[in-house]
# Entry
Amino acid sequence: MYPTMMNIDRGKNVLTSIRIIRDVKSCFNKEEVIVAGGAARDDFLQKEVRDFDIYMARPEAVDIDMVKMFLENEEWACNVRSIKPQISDEFLSYNDTLIEDVFAFDHKYENKPCELIVLQPHLNPINYVQEAFVCNLSKIWIEDDIHNPRFHVDFVDAVMHKKLKFYWGYHTDVNLEYVKKIANKYPEYELDEDTLDLFHQEWTREVLWK
# Structure
């Protein structure tokens, strides 16, 4: 289900991702910490990487306020703040109860903006992001024990066929602005038929309401 491509050229930001992952692991004594979504995807596909999303389940021994406190006590984490009320493009919804909080911070030594997405303690971050991300081209992640990113089969299918597919959950409104963002960033990829139909429906509604 999670293929690897060991003959690929490593993206220039993979080592940065690994350093950030290891810092977070050390801070919380957690093994399952990954960088997933936009940073891994854009680096692999040779696009500009603007920030890093890190996924981790909350350690059972600490509450969510202590997670923020631990981050603030790390020299490498600057300007730590909660941004849970804001909306993220990569996953279904910050209102998802499986996400306990999202902490933005700047990594002092890597000079990169980061977001730590804190999941409920029982969750596996890899399993979670593969189900939560709405775009097939975002189902890619980086761990700290391998030198290449890993992929969900949906990502491999997207790259092989140059086709974008979006999966909208039952508790998630369709976000066509996000679709436009990804489509504009990857113009060489076609939209799948279901997404094109959603655009047609939206265009029809706009015409009727004018």
